[in-house]
Amino acid sequence: MSITVELDKIDIRKLTIDDDTASFDCKEQELNEYIRDEAKKQQRDGAAVVYLAWYDAQLVGFVSFNMSSIRFQNIASQHLPSRTPYPYFPALMIGRVATDKICQNQGVGRLLCLRAVAMAVRLRREIGCQFVILNAKKNSIDFYKRCSFELGMNQPKRRRTPFMYFKLLDIEYCQKCRRELEPYAKFCIFCGTEQTPQSSPSDDPTKSNSTVHPM
Ligand SMILES: CC(C)(COP(=O)(O)OP(=O)(O)OC[C@H]1O[C@@H](n2cnc3c(N)ncnc32)[C@H](O)[C@@H]1OP(=O)(O)O)[C@@H](O)C(=O)NCCC(=O)NCCS
């Protein structure tokens, strides 16, 4: 069986103790067992928070998050933020992500990755966060590349689940009222000022704080 999903009608919300995840099947045994049997315990332990994607009362996907960091050696020079005293940068980790086989290849996986980026942007405001990272199964590397993730640098070639990252945009401020802009905002939501493009180091991909833009 397969269904056609309308992405704007997908509801992504945090896993609760009463959610029934038994029907989920992404064709990967380990991930099916995770969402059916382990996710609630992991969430209760504080090891991860899991978000479920629902479409018409049907569980169509999930993504799990936890806190992490990325070492500067793993980041390509054009994505490196300014150096800090620490050898690593704060990151949100996607622990697991999967789409049910009934609706794969319709954009649900990308939506879940976008949710991760949106979550990282919120964390950046609250506690500091510069990257979204994950360990990818080899057969899903191209999927993550389609979602604007980069393969990490300096990792062993034989690594079973290569490490990938997504660099968040640097925070920008309104040119008039100096308050923080929403990511990609053309207008300031506080004073309404239209933002005119400015030549900045982030326009130059050879400069250290250039960024990867999401899909
Ligand atoms: C990998 C997975 C999450 C992708 O989810 P999905 O909902 O099918 O993916 P989407 O429809 O959002 O795909 C986004 C893009 O990636 C492409 N894509 C999807 N799966 C791909 C794959 N395995 N390899 C290469 N490209 C892939 C799509 O064609 C689409 O391309 P587009 O930019 O041209 O539109 C899903 O196939 C899945 O759950 N697989 C089993 C579990 C798994 O491997 N999870 C990842 C663990 S690291």
Strand order of the largest sheet: 1-2-3-4-5-7-6
Describe the biggest sheet? 7 strands, mixed
Report the mean per-residue pLDDT as an integer.
Answer: 91
Radius of gyration, CA atoms, in whole angstroms:
19 Å
Class based on secondary structure composition and strand pairing: alpha+beta
The second-level CATH architecture of the largest domain is 3-Layer(aba) Sandwich
Helix content: 10-25%
* CATH-defined topology of the largest domain: Aminopeptidase
Poorly predicted regions are: 201-215
Tally of discrete structural domains: 2
List SSEs in N-to-C order. EHEEEHEHEE
Distance between the termini: 29 Å
CATH superfamily of the largest domain: Gcn5-related N-acetyltransferase (GNAT)
Total number of beta strands? 7
Hetero compounds = coenzyme A
